[in-house]
Amino acid sequence: MSLRTRPLPPHIVDNLEHLAKNMERKADGSEEKLAKLLETTSYAKHRWLYLSHPDIDKSLSSRPNVQRLDLSQLYYDTPAEPILYVTERFSAQGPAAIHVGETTYQLYQIMPHREPPFWIRMRIMPWWEKLIAILLPSVLFSWWFSLRLTKPIQVLTVAAKEFARGKLSARVRHKSRPQFELAQLSNEFNDMAQRIEDSMTTQKRLLGDVSHELRSPLTRLLLACGLLESGLNEQQTKYLQRIVKEANSLEEMLQNVLTLSRLEGQNQMLEFSVQSLRSVLHDVLADASFEAQSANKTLSVNCPESLEVNCDSILFSSAVENIIRNAIKYANHQIEFTAITQNENLVIMITDDGPGASEEVLQKLCEPFYRTSESRSRDSGGIGLGLAIAHRAVLAHKGELILSQANPHGLTATITVPLNSKYIDKTT
């Protein structure tokens, strides 16, 4: 701590020396009387007097040193006449000698510095303290403001991504004030999502209800066709067989629509059990191999006997069958079926060497009723429900179905489902 000295005006020096002589006279050689003098109102009311003793512990003070000022600095030098001592925290006028018996005290008048205003303290701060004082509040405020601004955006982004992935129940849960612009945007998003969910729910319910109601007249139509088989000539029999064929196709389509509707509405009751993958897919693979041979194509199967899967056998085999039949339909010569375990998951890869599909088409192949104009037509069979049902069936098993380009050409369908039963719900 720095100590500076300055000369005192003559009249202040005279007043300080006069005060010292007056106290010396009244003390009359008694240190006790000198100590009592410092307690009198006339001496200590408006000033702080400090009598330094050669032994600092015996020094006398008219006030307690509550500011914890370092008064030991006054002992560094004893000038011939009173001067002004200036430190960072106080000023002192003195010394003036007071002789009491054989002891000499030095009289000082202590003047603590007042706390300067904030703007003055800022001016006398070092440059690096000024920089910290300015930057730290700015950084903290910027961090708080950005957090307050970006958190609602992040919540809205997460909800929008979930909604885009097909989770129609995704909503923005925010705690912002209603007048906050982002809160208004979140409310608009929730209103939009609710309207879309209501519309999709109504559409799915209508599709399921219509498909269910159409099955009854279709069943009666097939029954009537069966009764008409006898007593018809050859030409009439051909017409009737055509009607039966189309009716059966219509019944199959209605069954697929109902299955898809139940899967999307999570109303399909599933019965899970741990079974050998070979046994679950035995009939599917056998029929697929025969169908491939009939089309002069080859189906190669790599499925270890030890592989097991926790699944609803009917729904799971139906999903795999839809994918394999789709691969056989569009393959040129070869279809490969491979099943492995990977990271506690069962992975099934079905690859064909057909023309494949563009990335844009791959994103839509699992959508209901989607049919590519360049590779599918009514004559090729199907109405665009096979892969959609397979996709929903895999989701019901807490897995995923990914369609990707095969190397060098063709299409690969990858089914991934968890092996551990704890990931499987008994119903969906």
Write the layout of secondary structure elements.
Blueprint: E1 4-7, H1 10-27, H2 31-37, H3 41-44, E2 48-52, E3 60-61, E4 83-86, E5 90-100, E6 103-112, H4 118-124, H5 127-164, H6 181-228, H7 234-264, E7 273-276, H8 277-280, H9 282-294, E8 298-302, E9 308-311, H10 313-330, E10 334-342, E11 345-352, H11 359-362, H12 386-396, E12 400-405, E13 411-418
Parallel strand pairs: 8-10
Antiparallel strand pairs: 1-4, 2-3, 2-6, 4-5, 5-6, 7-9, 10-11, 11-13, 12-13
Helix pairs in contact: 1-2, 5-6, 6-7, 7-12, 9-10, 10-12
Task: Describe what this molecule looks like in 3D.
The chain has 428 residues and is of the alpha+beta class. It has twelve helices and 13 strands. It has three domains: 4-114, Two-component sensor protein CpxA, periplasmic domain (Beta-Lactamase, 2-Layer Sandwich), CATH 3.30.450.210; 211-264; 273-423, Heat Shock Protein 90, CATH 3.30.565.10. The chain has helices at residues 10-27, 31-37, 41-44, 118-124, 127-164, 181-228, 234-264, 277-280, 282-294, 313-330, 359-362, 386-396, and strands at 4-7, 48-52, 60-61, 83-86, 90-100, 103-112, 273-276, 298-302, 308-311, 334-342, 345-352, 400-405, 411-418. The strands form three sheets. The chain has a six-stranded antiparallel β-sheet with strand order 1-4-5-6-2-3, with helices on one face.
